Amino acid sequence: MRSSMTALLSSRSDLKGCTEPRLFTPPLRELTPETSAGFECIRFAESVLRMTLMPWQKWFLIHALELNESGGFRFKRVLLLVSRQNGKTTLIKALLLWRLFVDGAEMVIGAAQSLGDAEDVWEEIVDQAEAIPALKKRMFKPKRVNGGKAMRLRPNKRTPRKPGGKYVVATLERDAKRGKTADLLFLDELREHKSWDAWNALSSTTLIPPRAQTVCASNAGDVHSVVLRDLRGRAKAAIETHRTDEVTLGLFEYSAPDGCDLDDWDARAQANPALGYTLTPTALQADQETKTDNGFRTENLCQEVEQIQSGIIDEDDWLALLDKSSRRADGTRVAVAVDVSWDRKRAHIAIAAEREDGLVHLEIVASRVGTNWVTPWLKERKAIENGWFNGQVALQERGAPVSSLTDELTDAGMTVVPIGGAELSKSSGAFFDAIKQRKARHRGQQVADESARTVRARPAGDAWFFDRKNSPGDASPVIAEASAYWLLGQKVEEIVESAYETTGLFTV
């Protein structure tokens, strides 16, 4: 057996990893030194940093640093997915140091799943720069205090009033580097972002600078990798529908095809572009023999092994409803519903309304932390004369976090339309059917998209309903939209103001 395995591996000794990723956002035009800054970055890496870049690393730099006609970067955000031990860190070293020493970036921020991991990458990059005398001369002495490491460059002699570049690290916390402005934000292991808090805080740092980029690198995620799954889903949908001309998010994914055999070496080569360069077939085979099948698929084939089991709504069905220009028809009734996440951390308000073409427009019109804001928000909309909100709100009647808002909403003058008993499964089933039958449209909101990808079903006799507690993501945005869709189909009596209500009394 051992001799046959040795012979098999020997026969694979000339196998090379794929230079081109299996899935990527295509360029807008031919990439040359005039249309991509990647060529300059490669020259810097090879001639100054003395690196030997692999073909896939060069390919990535050329495509990720594509320029638009104004000279800025085409992609505001870049997502690189590749299996472990394929040279990602070397690639990032070349990119970050080129941005600092050549491209003139004033601020580079690096973040990872822990401060220690981010500081480890920082140390490697600083060491690389200090090993080159010409670069070390341009640096102040690095600040190596734990939790406050910083690398600073001296001002350029040609622009002495302009500060030199700076490279610092950040944590994945809600207030991480809030208020800072970055020319380059590097997020390592994006799969570890289990909530949107860090992304929302950090990604805004690159809004202003004209040549700013957020570069994310990661292995495949799982059902809890909400940010990675959302960004990948959006980019993948744009690629598959040939709508990439105006996108600013570039996806470059080195992964094995879904459902491939674990022993398929061609599939392995697609997920491991360093195969045959720095990664040997023997090493890759040894890794498989010491891992579970799912572990090998995630770590070494860059596949989301839990994607199929993650939710009841098919991702392709949900993406088929995307219409960024979707809106309700003028003068149509708007059905409103509220739902709250299982842990009560967030509340969502959804609407459903008929469009001009007879389809139903779905939208999350408000999504915020906590629940205290819900009643004031709705009360304010109800007070608008001839507004879109008539005061009717659908929500689960009992046994759900949102149920506690019933009395509060009623006291504020809303008409609560309760959903309970058999109506729970009816609302879930009707919403599911509407998605399958393409009866609705949405604009593609990240909070709803991620919920749709991960929401699971809970059995109830021969029926089922959407499950808040056991869904890996937040199921409440989907439940809110399902409730609004259900309400739109109900014959709800128009609200008539009672004379008693104007005198401060309330009757039922």
Could you please describe the fold and organization of this structure?
By secondary structure, the chain is an alpha/beta fold. The protein folds into 2 domains: 12-300, P-loop containing nucleotide triphosphate hydrolases (Rossmann fold, 3-Layer(aba) Sandwich); 315-488, 2-Layer Sandwich (Nucleotidyltransferase, domain 5), CATH 3.30.420. Helices cover 34% and strands 17% of the residues. It contains 18 helices and 16 strands. It has helices at 2-11, 38-47, 55-64, 88-101, 115-130, 133-136, 197-203, 226-240, 265-271, 281-289, 293-300, 315-319, 374-382, 406-411, 422-436, 446-454, 476-488, 499-502, and strands at residues 23-24, 77-81, 107-111, 150-152, 166-170, 184-188, 213-218, 249-253, 334-340, 346-354, 360-369, 392-396, 415-419, 440-441, 456-460, 463-467. Helix 2 (38-47) packs across helix 3 (55-64) and helix 4 packs across helix 5. The longest helix is centred in the first third of the chain and has 16 residues, at 115-130.
SSE layout and pairing:
Elements: H1 2-11, E1 23-24, H2 38-47, H3 55-64, E2 77-81, H4 88-101, E3 107-111, H5 115-130, H6 133-136, E4 150-152, E5 166-170, E6 184-188, H7 197-203, E7 213-218, H8 226-240, E8 249-253, H9 265-271, H10 281-289, H11 293-300, H12 315-319, E9 334-340, E10 346-354, E11 360-369, H13 374-382, E12 392-396, H14 406-411, E13 415-419, H15 422-436, E14 440-441, H16 446-454, E15 456-460, E16 463-467, H17 476-488, H18 499-502
Parallel strand pairs: 2-7, 2-8, 3-5, 3-6, 6-7, 9-12, 11-14, 12-13
Antiparallel strand pairs: 1-8, 4-5, 9-10, 10-11, 15-16
Helix pairs in contact: 2-3, 2-4, 4-5, 15-17
